[in-house]
């Protein structure tokens, strides 16, 4: 299967059946991500215990790309340390930079499938919004934006 088909399939699958969607009863960190240009609004909730992300959830109103990216991120970051999550945030931002020339990064595993969004530069902010919100939450900030 070519990467474009895998990207499309991943976005559709995670948009139709998002993983870790909803507001959890317990969380230690929370941030809201806003993309004013397209109207995406995502809330990310993390439960961090002993510096490990025990769970991560999201909810809000967002497009298919933002929902799929959020779903992938929550699956991928569960059980990672805070430091690992911050390093993976940096890697994801590099991967999603349309000028990076990088199509995948070993550290990002299955998350690489969302990199196909780089073929649609106007949608990159939709894919990165949840990651910015996650990073803001870990930094103790209440909001993040892709603007």
Structure described in brief:
The chain is α+β, with helices and mostly antiparallel strands.
Structure description:
With 147 residues, the chain is of the alpha+beta class. It has a single domain, classed as Sufe protein. Chain: A. Helices cover 39% and strands 20% of the residues. The chain contains four helices and four strands; from the N terminus they run H-E-E-E-H-H-H-E. Helix 2 crosses helix 4 and helix 3 packs antiparallel against helix 4. The longest helix has 15 residues.
CATH topology: Sufe protein. Chain: A
Overall radius of gyration = 14 Å
How many helical elements?
Answer: 4
Strand content: 15-25%
Descriptive tags:
39% helix; 147 residues; four-stranded mixed β-sheet; Sufe protein. Chain: A; alpha+beta
């Amino acid at each position: 299967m070519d990467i474009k088909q895998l990207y499309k399939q991943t976005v559709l699958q995670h948009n139709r059946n998002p993983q870790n969607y909803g507001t959890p009863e317990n969380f230690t960190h929370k941030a809201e991500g806003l993309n004013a240009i397209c109207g995406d609004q995502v809330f990310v909730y993390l439960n961090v215990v002993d510096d490990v992300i025990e769970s991560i959830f999201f909810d809000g109103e967002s497009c298919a790309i933002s929902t799929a990216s959020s779903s992938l991120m929550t699956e991928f970051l569960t059980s990672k340390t805070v430091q690992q999550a911050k390093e993976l945030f940096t890697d994801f931002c590099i991967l999603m930079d349309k000028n990076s020339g990088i199509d995948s990064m070993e550290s990002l595993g299955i998350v690489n499938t969302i990199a196909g969004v780089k073929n649609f530069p106007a949608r990159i902010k939709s894919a990165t919004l949840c990651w910015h919100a996650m990073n803001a939450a870990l930094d103790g900030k209440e909001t993040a934006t892709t603007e």
